[in-house]
Specification:
Two copies of one chain form a homodimer. The first copy, chain A, is an alpha/beta fold and 297 residues long. Chain A is 35% helix and 20% strand. In chain A, helix 3 packs across helix 9 and helix 6 crosses helix 7. The first copy, chain A, is globular, with a radius of gyration of 19 Å.
Chain lengths: 297, 297
């Protein structure tokens, strides 16, 4: 049974693991994201030690914060590219890991990784076209279309779509440094905290904040549904831990679409159309494991 | 050399043709869209006559107004489904053509057909992920992702994405019967005519109407770019005959994205990123021909 390495590379922390599959993660470590040299160095140390114990890994998968270059035909493949995160712009990540450890490396965005994990073992099994969204300190989206991970020109940047914003009923201007009141500028965690002066965890589930949050999330979902026609939308991330959001935003999506899309999945079975990740908080690391499996093929 | 049949099925008129490729359309006929029985009947008569002259066609492709069911695994494959167009809801189209003429039939949306035509012979050659949009009496969008036509749950309905609308500077409420001021409610032909009291052809190219039109078109393009990361966007349809729109909306897209997507195609080469169809008004019928070629494979 081959063993794979997995790196869930987040802007705040990294998680590294080794295992043969979702029910067999044999080693795991997590550490804060500091400088690229130190953070990638800790990844290399972890996997070097593991390889001394268990032998050569079949491949390592990296599901990374971005933007990244996931194009295997590009000279910049495997780089974290234009991130505003200090010190990380233009960081050679995947090639550095492959060179140091002598193994094939799979590399993609965190959300594409999570989508792949959900496709193999979670809420997207058997689907060919679906979207995975994370709503936390930002909004990120990825997924599969026609059975393959979404890339295109770079990769989707779903957090930056532009949605209606009624400044009379909600004068909050949005926090996105590039676009102000784009989707993540209005609906990600920082917007919630600035608008209400506190984190979601401290507000009761029937506070009006949640209806407004569901409204903005639903506006973005409608745009993704109309642009991509996904067979399912999986929504993870810190904000979506607030379970009361799901029924609110499902209803808002139906109201906004107003019966235009005559799909039973949306009209009658929306509880199974907009869902949390079946892998929960493990979607990221298991997605990285799935990226490793693809890299070794 | 095999001969193919092509049906460009529009809500206003149909165009049927026979040929071996884009430079060899040997017969062509066009007629208004009336009832399904009459209109499809005229298609059948045309192709029957053609088959008596040239022998059996290798396949017929249909690029149709919608919504349609393009899923070959579905019992409703080949139907025009929930269209508000009188008499056409739940019309068996593709199977009826195939049964009557004894040939394989390829069937998809008009915009997916046009996208396929542009991929084979036009502005999308060599690309794996791109979008084809038509802006006319409505807005429709299709395309290829990872080298295959976009379907998913149904097929994209890009005209109905929701975009910011400042009612103070533009009080026009939109005409979409389902969503009011969705993208096509604000930016398709009927919106232009209701807002300005006349058709675009009668306004000079420097009229402020064009800047506002470019603004709304750009809002939708930004959303499509962020959701899908296309390698190129091809824009056809009656509205895009107004060539002055292209430079205006390219600049608006750059302004709205505000440098967030560090892709040379957008930052420096946007003239080749947002383009008219290379096949011009032939994109539809040639797309249907390309659908025929796929159906015969």
């Amino acid at each position: 049974m081959p063993l794979w390495g997995a790196i869930e590379a987040g802007g705040t922390k990294f998680l590294c693991a080794v295992g043969s599959g979702p029910r067999d993660l044999r080693a795991e470590t997590t550490f804060p994201t500091t400088s690229p040299a130190e953070t990638i160095g800790r990844c290399l140390s972890f996997f070097s030690e593991q390889q001394q114990k268990v032998g050569r890994l079949a491949a390592i998968g990296i599901a990374s914060f971005g933007p990244v270059d996931p194009d295997t035909a590009s000279p910049g493949w495997g780089y974290i590219t234009t991130t505003p995160k200090k010190g990380w712009a233009q960081t050679d990540f995947a090639s550095a890991v492959g060179r140091a450890l002598g193994v094939p490396v799979g590399f993609d965005t965190d959300v594409n990784g999570a989508a792949l994990g959900e496709h193999r073992w979670g809420a997207a099994q058997g689907l060919s076209t679906f979207v995975y969204l994370t709503v936390g300190t930002g909004i990120g989206g990825g997924g599969l279309v026609n059975g393959e991970l979404m890339h295109g020109l770079i990769h989707p940047e779903m957090g930056h779509i532009l949605v209606p914003h009624d400044r009379k009923s909600d004068p909050y201007g949005g926090w996105c440094p590039y676009h102000g009141d784009c989707w993540e500028g209005l609906a990600a965690g920082p917007a919630f905290e600035e608008r209400w002066g506190q984190r979601g965890e401290t507000l009761p589930p029937d506070h009006p904040a949640w209806a407004l949050e569901a409204h903005y999330l639903a506006l973005g979902l409608v745009n993704i549904i109309c642009a991509l026609s996904p067979q399912r939308i999986i929504m993870g991330g810190g904000m979506m831990q607030q379970q009361q959001l799901f029924p609110l935003l499902r209803r808002k999506v139906q109201t906004l679409l107003n019966g235009y899309l005559q799909a039973p999945a949306i009209l009658r079975d929306i509880d199974n159309y907009i869902v949390p990740p079946a892998l929960g908080r493990r979607a990221g690391v298991l997605g990285a494991l799935a990226l490793a499996q693809i890299a070794a093929q």
